[in-house]
Amino acid sequence: MKFSTAFTTAASLIATASAHGGVDTYTVGSTVYQGWSPYNSASGQKSIQRQYPGYDPLLIKDLTSVNIRCNNPGVLGTGSTGTIAAGAKLTAHWKQWTHKPAAVLVYMAKCPGSCDGFAGAGQIWFKIDHAGLVSGTQNAGIWAGDAIVDKLTWTSTIPATLAPGNYLIRHELLALHQANNPQFYPECAQFEVTGAGTVAPPAAALVSFPGAYTGKEPGIAFNIDSPDAMKATTYPIPGPAVWDGTGNAPAPVEPTKPEPVPTTLVTSAAPSKPTTPSCAAVAKYGQCGGANYSGCTVCVSGTTCTKNGDYYSQCV
């Protein structure tokens, strides 16, 4: 009985890990910094990355929870810090990633001294990089997160004007494959920024985690399968504008018009008898198979259940 319980728990963890993913290394030039290994014992691990428990989006679904900051309930660093010069490139590598579509967002926060004992609380975070819809429509286009599915890496440039000091760097993937149910995947790492920069972001560019997102933003309260998503060729990335490297306040963001409420035309014609599968068809980008999966395996019209490893299949 104990063996069966342990086996089931292990299988569940493997399935969760196979379906999602997190940053596992950071590269600066020829230097590779090891990230946290969430499914290994914390004993003896030392990393520039804040430790986090796993890839389960349910852990960070509440936008008012501290978990949205670095995918942990306020756990601090383990004593390691990376080094990067202002103006240099930082490449994050994900252990694995299967979700399409997804937006990519990168934030930084200045630590008041050593980052190792700093939780990252307060209105201190500024955005240095983001990307969403690259081309095509929201429903069937190419997204920034597709590059991570294909190459598992994302490269950002540290602002050349940024004043030196200790910073937290936060990478976030925002998976949008489920209608009105986005999934957040953030991880944070500790870096010392060097160089001759002198500029700090203005207060107007700063946000807090939690606090940066309300859940009502058009890019979060988002339906990938809506009629508008079939036509829209832009995507409103949530959060502040990317900081431009100056001490000036960012330009105001134009408000996004709300989506029109769809109406249904009712006629007197007798409806034809539909033919339906024995279960509710899985929406585009939803899970349709894999070990330990017990849901519907029928995809909506126009999509096919495609295998992504033994533990995860997706309607694409």
Salient structural properties:
single chain; 316 residues; mainly beta; Coagulation Factor XIII, Chain A, domain 1; five-stranded mixed sheet; four-stranded antiparallel sheet; 14 strands; disordered N terminus; monooxygenase
Overview in brief:
With 316 residues, this protein is mainly beta. Helix content is 9%, strand content 25%. The chain folds into 2 domains: 20-205, Coagulation Factor XIII, Chain A, domain 1 (Distorted Sandwich); 272-316.
What does this entry look like structurally?
The protein is mainly beta. It has two domains: 20-205, Coagulation Factor XIII, Chain A, domain 1 (Distorted Sandwich), CATH 2.70.50.70; 272-316. The protein contains three helices and 14 strands. It has a five-stranded mixed sheet. Mean pLDDT is 85; it is low at 1-18, 255-259 and 261-276. Its EC number is 1.14.99.56.
